[in-house]
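WARN  no MSA supplied for this record, continuing single-sequence
INFO  ligand: 48H
INFO  echoing inputs
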Amino acid sequence: MPLEIKEVEEEKVTRLIIQKTMEDWLKIADVDVIIVGAGPSGLTAAMYTAKAGLRTVLFERRLSFGGGMGGGGMQFHKIIVESPAEKILEDAGCRMESLENGLFIVDAAEMMAKLASKAIDSGAKIILGVTVDDVIYRDNPLRIVGVVIQWSSVVMARLHVDPLGIKARAVVDCTGHDAEVLSVASKKIPELKISVLGEKSMWTSKAEKLTVEGTREVCPGLFAAGMAVAAIDQTPRMGPIFGGMLLSGAKVAQLVVNKLLGEKALKVAPIDF
Ligand code: 48H
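INFO  complex generated
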């Protein structure tokens, strides 16, 4: 039988894309959790907050997910993860090789793909090509209640286009080394008393431990995970080892779930924090 490919009119494609996109965006306008940045910490956080049933949207500036994972260590395509973070990779269905002393090695592309896939399967909506460039706040009590978003292409073209605001019960900064959400909040809302001093030089074990320990709700409604924690705490960088990023993402998910679901909160990751 000859292959018959369905005929389609161009305007039909256009209408369906617009209709279905708007259906999603009407839901995204107000969610439980906004995660900013689709690196290792952001994808892990999204995977677990969505698994807990929280309406989760993740905004990523680029047109791809993975953040710093794609570059591995100096573009070598392997990533090292230390125990107990391998449990998170197991949760994501990621294959890895066990090495000596609680170290595991995984292909960078597989880790990016599997974490993103698991986050999506858990119910998180990942929106690519959107930059978060501000927060929404309220006072009495002072708190963060959402983010301001713009198309990354508009930001790159330096066009003056007014952004949109998206509300959430929790916002998580997973933007990496520059802690962009915390940075803008610290500059524009000085009463929050957040300072983003930037990370210190490399000290792997100390950095991993302090990043996970420092993962927290920085001010009401705004949480920090991943390298953003090192940026606000001025703690060391760790180099190309990603266990701390995964554990930080899982810990922030648990903190958000505990805050939003209270007594109904379940343990979301196979880790005790
Ligand atoms: C939307 C944004 C915005 C914005 C940035 O850098 P990442 O991988 O972040 P982490 O913290 O999950 O992981 C850090 C890790 O990759 C790393 O760099 C390590 C371990 N370094 C150690 C060392 O010594 O150097 O991902 C952040 C993501 C990226 O995809 C950005 O494009 C995105 O966030 N992003 N998205 N709005 N304003 N800013």
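The two ends are 59 Å apart (CA to CA).
INFO  checksum written, moving to next record
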